[in-house]
């Protein structure tokens, strides 16, 4: 497998965690979203992913984009350890939380949106994340065990940790979100989350390395 990734991309980090958890080794091709006006806009990368976004994963003779589509494929082809619970209700809760982050928070504070916000970009990102986290905190109070849904790491957790990293980068006050903070702390202690972390990627700038 070949993963096209950017160290700081939360969508890429989700996939790196899944690959790490499932023990799938891969080659990494960095795509710098800032340099050269954004390497994702090159003709070469557009041919790979017409949406001009990371991540993209070449695997088993196909190229997949969109982090949850990639994670679902990995789940179906490498079922252990599972990232979707067997219980239909818990599975639905995992998907709900993942969608909440992937559709309801992250795109609103994504690089392409922030570029259009000009000087207000930090304030905009903080507001988008805070309103999403208010809802998420409430949801997690009903679903969480050690992690987002019960005591097993799931697809929801793969979305949570990268989104908290975004929140910290934009200096969002995490005080009102004790459940999110507690789960994130537990996740960052896991090896798969450590090795896939933005501070430990081949394309991480020296000053941001762990």
UniProtKB/TrEMBL annotation:
Its EC number is 2.5.1.18, 5.2.1.2. It catalyses: 4-maleylacetoacetate = 4-fumarylacetoacetate; RX + glutathione = an S-substituted glutathione + a halide anion + H(+). Keywords: Cytoplasm, Isomerase, Phenylalanine catabolism, Transferase, Tyrosine catabolism. PROSITE patterns: GST_CTER, GST_NTER. GO terms for biological process: glutathione metabolic process; L-phenylalanine catabolic process; L-tyrosine catabolic process. Residues 1-82 form the GST N-terminal domain. It is found in: Cytoplasm. Residues 87-206 form the GST C-terminal domain. One of its GO terms (molecular function) is maleylacetoacetate isomerase activity. This is Maleylacetoacetate isomerase. Pfam families: GST_C_3, GST_N_2. Its cofactor is glutathione. Pathway: Amino-acid degradation; L-phenylalanine degradation; acetoacetate and fumarate from L-phenylalanine: step 5/6. Gene3D superfamilies: 1.20.1050.10, Glutaredoxin.
């Amino acid at each position: 497998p070949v993963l096209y990734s950017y160290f700081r991309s939360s969508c890429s980090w989700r996939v790196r965690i899944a690959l790490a958890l499932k023990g799938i080794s891969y080659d990494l091709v960095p795509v710098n979203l800032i340099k050269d006006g954004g390497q994702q806009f090159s003709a070469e990368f557009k041919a790979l992913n017409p949406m001009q976004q990371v991540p993209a994963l070449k695997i088993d003779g196909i190229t997949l984009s969109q982090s949850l589509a990639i994670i679902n494929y990995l789940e179906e082809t490498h079922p252990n350890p599972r990232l979707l619970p067997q219980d239909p209700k818990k599975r639905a809760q995992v998907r709900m939380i993942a969608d909440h982050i992937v559709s309801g928070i992250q795109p609103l504070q994504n690089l392409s949106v922030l570029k259009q916000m000009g000087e207000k970009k930090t304030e905009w990102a903080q507001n988008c994340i805070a309103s999403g986290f208010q809802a998420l905190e409430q949801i997690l109070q009903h679903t969480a065990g050690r992690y987002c849904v019960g005591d097993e790491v799931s697809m929801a957790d793969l979305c949570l940790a990268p989104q908290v990293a975004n929140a910290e980068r934009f200096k969002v006050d995490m005080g009102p979100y004790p459940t999110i903070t507690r789960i994130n702390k537990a996740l960052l202690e896991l090896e798969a989350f450590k090795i896939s972390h933005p501070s430990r990627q081949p394309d991480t700038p020296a000053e941001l390395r762990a």
